[in-house]
UniProtKB/TrEMBL annotation:
Signal peptide range in chain numbering: 1-17
Cystatin LXN-type domain mapped to chain residues: 61-180
GO CC field: extracellular space
PROSITE patterns linked to this entry: CYSTATIN_LXN
InterPro entries in alphabetical order: CYSTATIN_LXN, Cystatin_sf, Latexin
SUPFAM superfamilies reported for this sequence: Cystatin/monellin (SSF54403)
Keyword Disulfide bond on entry: no
Name under which the protein is recorded: Cystatin LXN-type domain-containing protein
GO molecular function ontology, one term from the record: metalloendopeptidase inhibitor activity
Keyword annotations from UniProtKB, A to Z: Protease inhibitor, Repeat, Signal
Entry-linked Gene3D superfamilies: 3.10.450.10
Family to which this protein belongs: Belongs to the protease inhibitor I47 (latexin) family.
Protein backbone atom coordinates (compact mmCIF):
# COMPACT_ATOMS: atom_id res chain seq x y z
CA UNK A 1 0.00 0.00 0.00
CA UNK A 2 1.42 3.35 -0.96
CA UNK A 3 1.88 6.16 1.62
CA UNK A 4 -0.56 8.48 -0.22
CA UNK A 5 -3.47 6.04 0.21
CA UNK A 6 -2.72 5.70 3.94
CA UNK A 7 -2.78 9.52 4.34
CA UNK A 8 -6.10 9.81 2.46
CA UNK A 9 -7.64 7.09 4.64
CA UNK A 10 -6.35 8.80 7.79
CA UNK A 11 -7.81 12.16 6.72
CA UNK A 12 -11.18 10.63 5.79
CA UNK A 13 -11.53 8.87 9.14
CA UNK A 14 -10.90 12.14 11.01
CA UNK A 15 -13.55 14.13 9.10
CA UNK A 16 -17.15 13.77 10.27
CA UNK A 17 -20.33 15.54 9.34
CA UNK A 18 -22.60 15.95 6.37
CA UNK A 19 -22.07 18.24 3.36
CA UNK A 20 -25.75 19.30 3.44
CA UNK A 21 -25.54 20.61 7.02
CA UNK A 22 -25.35 24.35 7.59
CA UNK A 23 -23.88 25.67 10.83
CA UNK A 24 -24.02 29.14 12.25
CA UNK A 25 -21.68 30.51 14.91
CA UNK A 26 -24.63 32.01 16.84
CA UNK A 27 -26.08 28.56 17.37
CA UNK A 28 -22.95 27.23 19.05
CA UNK A 29 -23.37 26.60 22.77
CA UNK A 30 -20.55 28.08 24.82
CA UNK A 31 -20.84 25.36 27.46
CA UNK A 32 -20.37 22.57 24.93
CA UNK A 33 -17.12 20.71 24.46
CA UNK A 34 -14.63 22.79 22.41
CA UNK A 35 -14.40 20.13 19.71
CA UNK A 36 -18.16 19.77 19.28
CA UNK A 37 -20.15 21.64 16.64
CA UNK A 38 -23.87 22.30 16.87
CA UNK A 39 -25.56 21.31 13.64
CA UNK A 40 -28.77 22.71 12.22
CA UNK A 41 -30.26 20.54 9.54
CA UNK A 42 -32.48 21.82 6.80
CA UNK A 43 -34.55 19.41 4.76
CA UNK A 44 -35.50 20.73 1.35
CA UNK A 45 -39.23 20.78 0.65
CA UNK A 46 -40.20 20.81 4.33
CA UNK A 47 -41.22 23.78 6.38
CA UNK A 48 -39.96 24.28 9.88
CA UNK A 49 -42.94 24.11 12.22
CA UNK A 50 -42.82 24.94 15.90
CA UNK A 51 -45.06 22.76 17.99
CA UNK A 52 -46.26 23.95 21.37
CA UNK A 53 -47.15 21.28 23.86
CA UNK A 54 -49.87 22.05 26.31
CA UNK A 55 -48.90 21.67 29.92
CA UNK A 56 -50.54 18.53 31.19
CA UNK A 57 -51.63 18.39 34.79
CA UNK A 58 -50.84 15.32 36.78
CA UNK A 59 -54.45 14.88 37.80
CA UNK A 60 -55.66 11.93 39.81
CA UNK A 61 -58.84 10.17 38.81
CA UNK A 62 -62.07 11.44 40.32
CA UNK A 63 -65.33 9.60 40.72
CA UNK A 64 -65.47 5.85 41.23
CA UNK A 65 -62.07 4.23 41.81
CA UNK A 66 -61.02 0.75 40.77
CA UNK A 67 -60.33 -1.09 44.07
CA UNK A 68 -57.32 -2.89 42.57
CA UNK A 69 -55.55 0.21 41.26
CA UNK A 70 -53.02 2.43 42.99
CA UNK A 71 -55.16 5.43 44.10
CA UNK A 72 -57.65 3.28 46.02
CA UNK A 73 -54.90 1.07 47.48
CA UNK A 74 -52.89 4.11 48.57
CA UNK A 75 -55.90 5.70 50.29
CA UNK A 76 -56.63 2.40 52.05
CA UNK A 77 -53.02 2.22 53.28
CA UNK A 78 -53.48 5.69 54.80
CA UNK A 79 -56.52 4.37 56.70
CA UNK A 80 -54.53 1.34 57.84
CA UNK A 81 -51.70 3.50 59.18
CA UNK A 82 -54.19 5.82 60.91
CA UNK A 83 -55.83 2.85 62.67
CA UNK A 84 -52.44 1.49 63.76
CA UNK A 85 -51.39 4.87 65.18
CA UNK A 86 -54.68 5.57 66.98
CA UNK A 87 -55.74 2.11 68.15
CA UNK A 88 -52.74 -0.16 67.72
CA UNK A 89 -50.24 -1.28 70.35
CA UNK A 90 -47.12 -3.45 70.42
CA UNK A 91 -49.45 -6.45 70.74
CA UNK A 92 -52.24 -5.28 68.40
CA UNK A 93 -51.88 -4.54 64.70
CA UNK A 94 -54.37 -3.70 61.96
CA UNK A 95 -53.72 -5.05 58.48
CA UNK A 96 -55.47 -4.16 55.25
CA UNK A 97 -57.39 -7.18 53.98
CA UNK A 98 -59.22 -5.94 50.88
CA UNK A 99 -60.51 -2.77 49.22
CA UNK A 100 -64.11 -3.35 48.12
CA UNK A 101 -64.98 0.02 46.54
CA UNK A 102 -63.94 3.65 46.58
CA UNK A 103 -64.84 7.14 45.40
CA UNK A 104 -62.70 10.26 45.13
CA UNK A 105 -63.65 13.88 44.63
CA UNK A 106 -61.79 17.17 44.53
CA UNK A 107 -62.45 19.59 47.38
CA UNK A 108 -61.87 23.27 46.56
CA UNK A 109 -59.51 24.37 49.33
CA UNK A 110 -58.27 21.21 50.96
CA UNK A 111 -57.39 18.80 48.15
CA UNK A 112 -59.09 15.43 47.71
CA UNK A 113 -61.74 13.51 49.63
CA UNK A 114 -61.86 9.71 49.55
CA UNK A 115 -64.71 7.41 50.55
CA UNK A 116 -63.63 3.79 50.85
CA UNK A 117 -65.21 0.49 51.76
CA UNK A 118 -62.42 -1.74 53.07
CA UNK A 119 -61.92 -4.88 55.15
CA UNK A 120 -59.40 -4.62 57.97
CA UNK A 121 -57.87 -7.59 59.75
CA UNK A 122 -56.99 -7.26 63.42
CA UNK A 123 -53.87 -9.14 64.49
CA UNK A 124 -53.41 -9.70 68.21
CA UNK A 125 -50.13 -11.00 69.56
CA UNK A 126 -50.08 -12.69 72.94
CA UNK A 127 -48.54 -10.42 75.55
CA UNK A 128 -45.91 -12.08 77.71
CA UNK A 129 -43.71 -11.27 80.65
CA UNK A 130 -40.03 -10.32 80.60
CA UNK A 131 -40.29 -8.48 77.27
CA UNK A 132 -40.67 -11.70 75.33
CA UNK A 133 -42.64 -12.13 72.16
CA UNK A 134 -44.92 -15.17 72.20
CA UNK A 135 -45.84 -17.01 68.99
CA UNK A 136 -48.55 -19.60 68.40
CA UNK A 137 -48.26 -21.06 64.92
CA UNK A 138 -49.20 -23.96 62.68
CA UNK A 139 -46.21 -25.32 60.74
CA UNK A 140 -46.28 -27.55 57.67
CA UNK A 141 -43.12 -29.65 57.27
CA UNK A 142 -42.35 -31.37 53.99
CA UNK A 143 -40.60 -34.70 54.41
CA UNK A 144 -38.50 -35.24 51.31
CA UNK A 145 -38.21 -39.06 51.41
CA UNK A 146 -41.91 -39.92 51.74
CA UNK A 147 -43.19 -36.66 50.20
CA UNK A 148 -45.51 -36.30 53.18
CA UNK A 149 -46.68 -33.01 54.70
CA UNK A 150 -46.49 -33.15 58.50
CA UNK A 151 -48.60 -30.71 60.55
CA UNK A 152 -47.17 -29.29 63.80
CA UNK A 153 -48.61 -26.81 66.27
CA UNK A 154 -45.91 -24.80 68.04
CA UNK A 155 -46.01 -22.35 70.92
CA UNK A 156 -42.67 -20.59 71.36
CA UNK A 157 -41.22 -17.35 72.68
CA UNK A 158 -38.41 -15.11 71.55
CA UNK A 159 -36.47 -12.55 73.54
CA UNK A 160 -33.23 -10.75 72.71
CA UNK A 161 -31.15 -12.17 75.58
CA UNK A 162 -32.53 -15.74 75.53
CA UNK A 163 -33.34 -16.31 71.87
CA UNK A 164 -36.00 -18.86 70.88
CA UNK A 165 -37.57 -21.18 73.47
CA UNK A 166 -40.18 -23.78 72.52
CA UNK A 167 -42.93 -23.92 75.16
CA UNK A 168 -45.28 -26.44 73.57
CA UNK A 169 -44.95 -28.70 70.56
CA UNK A 170 -47.73 -30.92 69.25
CA UNK A 171 -47.88 -33.12 66.17
CA UNK A 172 -51.33 -32.83 64.65
CA UNK A 173 -53.01 -35.97 63.28
CA UNK A 174 -52.74 -36.71 59.60
CA UNK A 175 -56.17 -36.35 58.03
CA UNK A 176 -56.75 -38.34 54.84
CA UNK A 177 -60.51 -37.91 54.81
CA UNK A 178 -60.59 -34.16 55.40
CA UNK A 179 -62.42 -32.18 52.77
CA UNK A 180 -60.46 -29.45 51.08
CA UNK A 181 -62.26 -26.09 51.25
CA UNK A 182 -63.33 -24.80 47.84
CA UNK A 183 -60.94 -22.42 46.15
CA UNK A 184 -62.54 -18.97 46.12
CA UNK A 185 -59.92 -17.34 43.88
Amino acid sequence: MSPSIIIVLAVLTGVTGSPSVATSPAAVDATAHPNSVVEETEIFGWQQVSVEKEAEEDAMATGELNPNHYPAQRAAKVVQHYLNVQYGSPFRLFGLHKVHSGNAEDVADSGRKYQLEISVQEIINNASDNKQVKFDCHVLLHEMVSQEIIHWKLLFTWSPPDGVKVLQMEKLPHCHDCKVPPNTN
